[in-house]
Amino acid sequence: MSITQTETVPIVTTATARERLQGWLPRLVLAPSFAAVLLFVYGFILFTFYLSFTNSKILPNFTFVGLQNYEKLFAAPNWWTALSNLAIFGGLYIVICTIVGLGLAILLDQKIRGEGLLRPIYLYPMALSFIVTGTAWKWFLDPGIGVETIVRSWGFETFTFDWIKNNDMAIYTVVIAAVWQSSGFVMAMFLAGLRGIDNEILKAAQIDGASNFQLYRRIVIPLLKPAFLSAFVVLAHLAIKSYDLVVALTNGGPGRATELPATFMYSYTFTRNQMGIGASSAVIMLVMIASVIVPYIYAEVKGGQSNGR
Amino acid sequence: MAFLEIDSLIKRFGPVEVLKGINLQVEEGGFLVLVGPSGCGKSTLLSMIAGLDTISEGEIRIKGKRVNELPPSQRDIAMVFQSYALYPNMTVGGNIAFGLEMRGVDKAERDKAVARVADMLQIGHLLNRKPSQLSGGQRQRVAMGRALVRDPQVFLFDEPLSNLDAKLRVDMRTEIKRLHQKMGTTIVYVTHDQIEAMTLATQIAVLKDGVLQQFGTPAEIYNDPVNVFVADFMGSPAMNLVPARVTANGSAVAVALKRDNEPDLLLEAGRGAASLARHDGREILLGIRPEAITDTDGADRTARTVVHAGCHVDVVEPAGSDTFVVTRLGAREVIARMRSDARVRPGERVDFAFNMDKAVFFDPATQARVA
Amino acid sequence: MAVSSPDTAVRTGRVTRALIYALLIVFAVYYLLPFYVMVVNSFKPLDEIRGGAMLALPKLFTVEPWLTAWNSAQIGVSPTGLSPYFINSILMVVPAVALSTVFGAINGYVLTKWRFPGHDIVFGMMLLACFIPFQIVLIPMARILGLVGLAGSTPGLVMVHVVYGIGFTTLFFRNYYEAFPTELVKAAQIDGASFWQIFFRILLPSSGPIIVVTVIWQFTNVWNDFLFGASFGDFDSMPMTVALNNLVSSSTGVKEYNVHFAGAIMAALPTLVVYIVSGRYFVRGLMAGAVKG
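^ inputs. structure came back:
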């Protein structure tokens, strides 16, 4: 066609500045967020890591002292209290939440009338702040007005329940409140897992003669493995981060009986002016969480890629 | 100078070369079909023409103008996707008009253009619906409408019929062919379906593993495949490929096919006998399409070299319009296409007519055509 | 059964079913009890609580504790009640949620539809950032906020919450847009739409559900945060959670349990309302945060 030939077309065109900008636009748009994450997460981690090798007290300073802070940290009885509390709290929290969550999920999965009402009741504590949870349980467990008084008013005059004031038992009250807050969420995770199981598998097992108990033990629970893994990772990382709940419920007390690594870090850094030691405790916390999270995310991303494309 | 030229095109993803130097030319108004098995690079090639994938090396020119660096919107192309890619939040009308809107065409003119295209595709009554309310065939029409409305220089189709059921696919194939004949626009069309390729194309490019195997008209691709891959890929049922030995005796050249419990079957070579003579005594691969092996009454009367030979019938598959008959030659199953009323029963010995004018010969080692 | 509950193959007898219902109700009581205690005691005079009737309904119904908690309770050194801190929280939450959601949406868009070499590393780094213990960033963050003059201010807290919320919002949007057909983006490119036009005209109109999930998730997290509020807030910016904790744990004077409970409910109410109104999205957010979608 003659019209097309009269159009002047350059044989070679190069990208204009505008087009080149278009090409870079996605990266430019992402850059602020990524820069913020690089600085405020990874930069800060490095900074704190560095501080943990300095003799910073009330303010950061840059006198290098090697591993001194870590030596002091692991020589501090409070830190060992915090670690053993974390072991008790974390262990019980994960185990009880998993048992309660799985149990409730299995019970709710039996064609329950009113599931739509029960499920949100089990789950609502997750919407609350740990400070609110802590406040509620602090007074509910208080021997002066709470459970102990209530039971005594029913006629059991000698009933005693003073865990929250008891050095040896206080950490268990943290477990009670934390389980109350999180177990409904674990229930939701397991329920989603249960609903994802192909019913035909269950029917096949029944035809094979499995009892209900065998059905769950041999077929259902093994199929819930991914939900167990997710629940473990979420609960473990929440346990290591736990701070607000302890502050509101016991404020680390009585004495330092409910000290956790998070409260330890805060008090050493901001009230005891031992920033170097505070920084080293934060590094230890990061290492603990990373050892749980990094393998999990690595597996998720890897798995996602091979399934995805 | 061709309308669309693809010149030594190379595409790499990291160290992997997925297109290894492709050369193609399409004349204005041509209908190029890129065909090949999945993973051959045909969709990548289409994406590169569209500007959705970058070019590692080589050049793409439209009307002589290099478009390598142009973004898709400035190449004056339109594309119909496999999933139709209709914008779910817009009405049919909005979908069709979107490209015009992005180019700053005013509302009145857009409406006029949409109405014209809707009329052409008979989707006028659907303009206010959302894509989710449409059937598969209707979505397909909308997707074509969206491409047509812009009146682009080149249409790109990425397996547009593969999500339709068999009957609708045949209808839409005809529709696309009719549109092409009416509008005369240049089309590049990707498919893995060799029947679509044969019916639609003015030119076919067969790709495999990022290498262009053959580029030619449908008749060339079908009758004169350059290698075993093309011969095997195009045509259904596939071309019979049978090991044979060349025996040249003066001007008489034949191929000998081994048979079970019988002497070898000798088939005199027709077309290509001269080139075949140079391979005297060597093993070759005889390629012969099922329709070139018939019952004796059904043989092509215009063919010069038709060999009649009695063969043992293994399986008979009536297909309505034809009857496919399977026999064993050269340790392979060979399919013959006989008339539907041919009287053939399994286990019988029947005379087959081999139209050796249609036979082709390949080197079993290089897989290339020798005659 | 007319109920459209999902079909389970397991069959149970009558006694078992009664037992199941009993157990489920016991647990419902366990979950409801603390909240019930908070509510009934927030409407009682103090001596009724001290008398050991924590579980009883109020004999003398009073809203006095609520008024005190809102207007005049002693928080730290000043008897302001919780109202200024409630407002602090709102002033902090609204921009923090809005900004982190916007960033998350854009990041998710780029990381799925405009991939560049190394996009997976960028995403992986942002994802890991979701899980760090915030103790590791407290010290440098306090320094930086001081340096840029945002220490103790609401904008400072907004910035902190945006920065540490981006990981999750990006995760949500990335997973959502990952499932959004890329062919639509290609079609729009060919139609001549620009980067932003594709985002606003094609993706955003289909993003309703994930926006709701993200906003709820961020709202709940930021509203409920304590650590950042306690570390970086002062009187003008201290959020509700920190003020509530100050109210409850102040060691001076009589412990006004009823006021504490009223204050706790006030702090819980916004997230609770969101939960009740849109629980489905709330759960979806929790799940998305837990398992990669």
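The CA atoms of residues 222 and 231 of chain A lie 15 Å apart. The domain at 71-308 of chain A is CATH 1.10.3720.10 (MetI-like fold).
thumbs up if we can close this ticket
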